[in-house]
Structure formats: C-alpha cells, structure tokens
From TrEMBL:
Keyword Oxidoreductase part of the UniProt annotation: yes
Domain of life of the source: Eukaryota
Protein name: Laccase
Signal peptide (residue range): 1-22
Lineage, uppermost ranks: Eukaryota, Fungi, Dikarya, Ascomycota, Pezizomycotina
Key words, A-Z: Copper, Metal-binding, Oxidoreductase, Signal
Record organism: Elaphomyces granulatus
Length: 655
C-alpha cells in the first residue's frame, strides 16, 4: 500500500543559483541593431517602453516603413502604428490576434555556453552546479515582438548531454527547435553545439531551461523576455525576478537518493534571482560565527508615486510560491504569454513554470518610516517540502532616502492555500471561444502512482507517476521526431494523444481523482492527494475547467466563452482540469508535470499532432541526424572513458 508518506517521495527537488546577477552578462548578444542614431531610417527603431531604465536595448522594424512606435506610460497598449492614419495600415497593439498576426522584426543571435560551476547562492557551497555563460540565473535573452531568435548552445559539461527548452514559446511549425531530448532531438553531446531557431510571435516573459532529465535544477535556467504591449499603463519596468527552491546538492544526487529511499528529499532555501539565505539551526546555536554568509537579498529601488512593471517567474523544482510586497498591491496584467484584463490583489500565486506580469504602484500603505519593505515568497500550503527552517523574506523594496536597515514591515493579508490564481480573474484580452466538440476528440487521463510497468525501469521496485497507461520512459538516442519518420511501428501509441485533422479542437481531461465507471483511466494505479502544475508544449491552452472536486459529467462547469489561457495550470489535488487546444501546429509535443521529481518519475506524455504535416527543412533534418550521431559516439565511447558507471546512466524518464 502506498501511504501519503509515499507521495512526497517524488516531490522534492533542487534548483541552482549563483552569486552573479544574470543581468551582468552582456556581450552575449550579437544583435544586428543599429545603435547609432545617424543611421536612423524611415522605420521604427526605439527603446521599448517596458525595458528597464538604462538598459540600452532597442527594438527595430526595418520591414515596417511608414510606422512609428506608440507605446508610452500613458498608452502601454499600443506598440506600432502607421504614421499616416489614412494610410489604411493596421496598428499593432494589445488587441492584435498575435497567434495569426505580428510585426516583422529583426534576427537576434545569442550564445549560451554550458559549464560546471561551484556556487554559494544561499551562503552554502554547491559544487555540482551547471550554468549558462558562467552565471546563475542565466543571461537575460531578449527580443521584440515579431523578431527571429537564434541561440547557439555549446555543451562544455563532461558527463551530461543537454537540450534547451524555450518555455511557452509556441514553436509554430518549428517543432524541431522545442529542445526536448528523446522527443524533438537527441541530447547535445559534451563538446557539441546546436543552434535553436524560432520566431517570437507571442510577447511577455518566460524562461529557458534544460530539459535533459533533472538538469535545470542544477542551475540551467534563465529569463526570456519578448518586448511588446501591455494591458495596463505603468511608468518604468524592472528586470525579471526568478524565484526558486534550492538544495545544496545536485538534483541528480537527490534523485538517486530518492530512488533508494523512496522518500522525497527536502529543499534547503528559497532564492530570488539566485540569492537566498540558508538558516542552519544547529550551527546557529553552536557557533554563530560559523554561519554561512548569505548574499545581500535581491533589492528593488522605487520612487514614490511611480508605477513599476515586474516580471515574476517561478522556476522551482517543487514549490508553488505566494509572492507579495508588504504594504503594496499588485495589478496582474499577463499570465504566462497571455495578456489579461487587469485585476488587483495583495499577493499572487505562482506555480512552477508559471509567469505573471504585475504592476506595483509605489504608494505604500501603511507607510514605513524606514522606507523599506519586505518582498515575500511564501511556499503555498502543501505545495512544497523544506527542511525545518527557511526565510520567506527574500527581497527588499527600498525608497529614498536610502537606508541599509532591514524592513520591519508587516505581511499583507492573503491566503497561502495551494491553488492557481482565482479562475474567474484570468480574462484574456484577445478572447477565444472554444466550441462544443464531439466525444472522439475528448481524451481522459488520470494522474496516478503506479507500480505496474515493464522493465527497463530502474530500479524495478519503485513506484512512479503516470499520466496515461504507464510512466513515460524515453530513449535519448531515439527521438520521436526521427522515429516517426523512419519506423512508425516503433512508436508506443499507448503513451500518446494522436490527432490527424487540421484546425480541430482537442480536449484533455486530466484527473487527480478516480472518476467512477470511467474506462479511460488506467487501472492498477493509485490517486494521491497531490497538486501538479501541468505544462503543454507547442500551444497556449484554454483552461475550460479547474476543480478541486472529482469530475462528474452531469455537474461539471465548463467555460467555453473566453476561458483563462496559458501554458501551465495547476491540477488541484483531488480534482481535475480540462484543457483545450486547436490542432494548428503539427508536431510532437510533450505534456508533463513541472515538478521535476514527477517528470523524472514519468508524469508525462506525448501529443502527436498531425504528424504527417510536420515539415522539418532538409538542413534541420540533417542537423537532427548529426546531433544524434555525435550523441551516440559520446554515449558509446567518451562517456565510458570519462564518467562513473557504477549506476545506470539513465535512471529517470529522460525529461
Ligand atoms: C549528469 O551529471 C551528474 C553529475 O553532475 C551525474 O551524477 C549524472 O549521472 C549524469 N546523468 C546523466 C544522465 O547524464
Ligand atoms: C512555484 O511553483 C510551485 C509549484 O507549483 C509552488 O509550490 C510555489 O509556491 C511557486 N512559487 C511562487 C513564488 O509562486
Ligand atoms: C524533511 O524535513 C522534515 C521537517 O523537518 C522532516 O520531518 C523530514 O524527516 C525531512 N525529510 C528528509 C527526507 O530529510
Ligand atoms: C485575491 O487573492 C485571494 C487569496 O489571497 C483570492 O481568494 C481572491 O479571489 C483574489 N482576488 C482576485 C480578484 O483574484
Ligand atoms: C454545447 O453543448 C451544451 C450541452 O450539450 C449545450 O447546452 C450548449 O448550448 C452547446 N453550446 C454551443 C455553443 O453549441
Ligand atoms: C520492494 O519494496 C517493498 C517495500 O519497500 C519491500 O518490502 C520489498 O522487499 C522490495 N522488493 C524488492 C525485490 O526489493
Ligand atoms: C495516428 O492515427 C492515425 C489515424 O488513426 C493512424 O493512421 C496512425 O498510425 C496513428 N499514428 C501513431 C503513431 O499511432
Ligand atoms: Cu506533479
């Protein structure tokens, strides 16, 4: 019997951080921007209104002669408009249907070098970190709405492959750039490089991270922003804020430990942009002088009366956070890559992988005499696992005249229940109406813990999470995208959704509880009271229902008229979600739980979307084969020479 205890086994994970700010990492952008104003042409070149002060980053639209930029603190909903209103040209703004229409920008090139590094993000040493360009979090990758992005990733690790996923990017007709090993490519072998190419049709904030097994938890995560319009006005903006749980060992070690002990490892601290502080209770009592020296917490400087745009990203392994700033209200204007109608609250709940754009008005109440206020990141009840003590006061807002003292401000009033933001508050600006669909397009899945799976799952006596008819287990050397082309019979259809007609709506009901008499749910597994942040690649999905009670077809409330839309939604413990997407993007798309332990355990599935229409360009196909060839060479040779082989190399699902 699996008890409640057992559940936690799979939950814990670690995240990585460094002592260097990600925003120091200049020089990685080889953008073709004309920074010299003497070269100004008859097309828009401008500092995006939502770029942080002094960042010197320019948007440029050489293809849009006769246009000018129009976003400003009084009208952040505007992006580009025709100079001559009578020209008949259309405006690009917050109401533009960005899935079908976007301005044509420029090509921006970035490079990411992956190396091993020792970091002290919470004052304690972690010598197993893996980072981008020597910093944690990784450098801020930025583009403007409609730009093309190319990122060349080089793997300098000695014993790990890697792939980089651009979280939330739709990858319309570019599935081979989605960065999921064993699905859309082989891992990039040590010593090898790969260039990812995709278009920024959406705008807002996201993150990029390794999708190679548990690797992102060791530090391979960074912010990704596409500048575009906003659904509410503000004066200035700040750099992205990445929040994460953190551990002082490699996630690979934690996972091996999990497999042996069948229990979930504890996280040790919370990091805000790579900075946190670990509170070792015993050391504190014994000898305070021995305490690790934590870095200064992340600090935001505000001027009274201004409105600031903040970009919040939850890059956790195992923690849903409640984000708040003492004495300040937050106006939420964007969830994931989807602009929404603004609403105001005292806190915002951010699940793993989720992002929010929020506006903070710098008029605190009650006002602190010191002019300092805590930023709090509180793990939601039941959605985290930490060692006994950790600090949730992870950042500081300071007003002039600046002082160095710690804030004494009181926490705002809010709930810390583990959930998503209130369903009815998330109203997309560009509405979708999801039609009634026929039953054959409706698929039902249960998130269960199971012991019924065939070899070669390792170790054999370990319960795994499954989403469909078994826990996912991928073969690094045999990516689905190539399998399908070469030998469709090898495809394990029972682990997938398989769609074949274009522009059809598909609905997935994902249940965390038993549905009586439902033949579609797997047998032999066990539902456990755990919430899961479910992420779909290749689409923003409409969230037709999100419920804390089990699905009942006769009473379920399903919203089809402009439902919330995003790319990660929390499946509530004991309840269900129904998500819908339109088959307009041929590809092989992963759907998985974003709790790193659960994805490793197998809580994932592939959506085969109109695979006959996948058209990988010949050059890209050749690259896919090359990457596999180098991976296989390393796997069969370099790995054996350089890496410890005392345990199975692959001991998790692969993602
Ligand atoms: C990845 O590297 C870690 C060391 O950081 C090692 O323990 C692990 O076995 C490697 N795993 C794979 C699948 O590459
Ligand atoms: C990040 O997501 C996890 C999992 O959903 C959640 O437990 C945690 O509270 C989130 N963190 C924040 C700061 O919202
Ligand atoms: C995690 O921390 C809790 C609370 O201190 C403790 O009861 C539990 O034993 C710890 N688990 C592990 C695996 O260390
Ligand atoms: C504000 O947050 C509370 C939880 O603290 C939630 O119950 C309420 O619905 C939220 N309000 C809006 C408008 O979303
Ligand atoms: C969808 O189906 C439901 C139940 O069969 C029905 O009540 C509703 O009117 C239908 N909606 C549309 C837009 O057809
Ligand atoms: C599998 O695990 C169970 C429960 O921990 C234990 O009783 C059993 O002996 C194990 N079986 C093997 C083959 O290790
Ligand atoms: C997907 O479904 C189509 C139509 O039923 C079928 O021809 C094809 O073999 C299926 N593909 C896979 C990989 O299961
Ligand atoms: Cu999960």
């Amino acid at each position: 019997m699996l008890g409640f205890e057992r559940i936690w086994t799979y939950l814990l994970y670690v995240f990585s951080v460094g002592t260097v700010s990600p925003f120091d990492a200049h020089g990685t952008v080889q953008s073709p921007l004309l920074q010299d104003s003497s070269q100004l042409k008859d097309y828009p070149i401008f500092l995006p209104p939502n770029a942080p002060e002094g960042s010197g980053f320019l948007c440029q639209y050489p293809g849009l002669t006769g246009y000018e930029s129009c976003g400003n603190p009084k009208d952040q909903g505007c992006w580009l408009r025709p100079k001559d209103p009578k020209s008949g040209l259309k405006e690009y703004n917050i109401h533009t249907d960005y899935e079908n229409d976007y301005p044509k920008g420029v090509l921006r090139k970035y490079t990411l070098d992956v190396t091993r590094k020792t970091l002290f993000p919470d004052g304690c040493k972690n010598d197993q970190c893996k980072v981008f360009n020597d910093v944690y979090p990784g450098p801020w990758i930025r583009a403007c709405w409609g730009d093309d992005i190319e990122v060349t990733v080089t793997n300098h690790l000695d014993c790990n492959g890697t792939t980089i996923h651009w979280h939330g990017i739709r990858q319309l007709n570019t599935v081979e750039n989605d960065g999921v090993n064993a699905v859309t490519q082989c891992p990039v072998a040590p010593g090898d490089s790969l260039t990812y190419k995709f278009k920024a049709m959406q705008y807002g904030t996201s993150w990029y991270h390794s999708h190679y097994s548990l690797q992102y938890a060791d530090g391979m995560a960074g912010p990704l922003t596409i500048h575009g319009p906003s659904s509410a006005n503000y004066d200035l903006s700040k750099e992205p804020i990445l929040m994460t749980d953190w551990n002082q060992r490699s996630a690979f070690e934690d996972w091996s430990w999990t497999l042996e002990h069948n229990t979930r490892p504890n996280m040790t601290s919370i990091l805000l942009n790579g900075k946190g502080s670990y509170i070792p209770l015993t050391m504190l009592l014994l000898n305070p002088a021995n305490n690790p020296q934590p870095p200064e917490p992340h600090t935001l400087f505000f001027k009274k009366g201004l409105r600031y745009l903040l970009r919040l990203i939850n890059t956790s392994v195992d923690t849903t956070f409640v984000f708040s700033i003492d004495g300040h209200k937050l106006t939420v204007i964007q969830s994931d890559f989807v602009p929404i109608k603004p609403y105001t609250n005292t806190s915002v709940l951010i699940g793993i992988g989720q992002r929010y754009h929020v506006i903070v008005e710098a008029s605190p109440s009650p006002e602190e005499r010191s002019g300092n206020y805590w930023i709090r990141t509180i793990p939601a009840d039941g959605c985290s696992s930490f060692k006994a003590k950790y600090t949730t006061q992870t950042g500081i807002v300071r007003y002039e005249p600046l002082s160095k003292v710690n804030p004494t401000s009181k926490q705002n009033q809010f709930d810390t229940k583990c959930s998503d933001e209130t369903y009815s508050s998330l109203k997309p600006v560009v509405p979708w109406t999801v039609p009634n669909i026929t039953l054959s397009q409706n698929h039902e899945f249960g998130v269960e813990l199971t012991t019924t799976f065939p070899p070669p799952y390792y170790p054999s006596n370990f319960s795994r999470w499954e989403l469909h008819k078994g826990p996912m287990w991928l073969d690094f050397s045999r990516p689905t995208i190539l399998n399908l082309a070469e030998d469709p019979s090898k495809w394990t259809a029972e682990l997938s959704v398989n769609t074949t007609s274009r522009d059809q709506w598909v609905e997935l009901l994902i249940s965390a509880a038993e549905i009586p008499d439902d033949p579609d749910l797997p047998v032999g597994g066990q539902f456990l009271p755990v919430s899961h942040p479910i992420h779909l690649h290749g689409h923003d999905f409409a969230l037709l229902a999100q419920s804390e009670i089990p699905y009942n077809p006769s009473t379920a409330v399903i919203k089809r008229d402009n439902p919330p839309r995003r790319d990660v939604a929390l499946l509530p413990s004991g309840g269900y979600i129904i998500i819908a997407f339109k088959t307009d993007n041929p590809g092989v798309w992963l759907i998985h739980c974003h709790i790193a332990w659960h994805a490793s355990s197998g809580l994932a599935m592939q959506v085969l979307e109109n695979v006959r229409d996948i058209a990988v360009p010949p050059q890209a196909l050749q690259t896919l084969h090359q990457t596999c060839k180098k991976w296989n060479n390393w796997f069969n040779d370099g790995r054996l020479k350089n890496c410890a082989t005392w345990h199975p190399f692959q001991d998790d699902s692969g993602v």
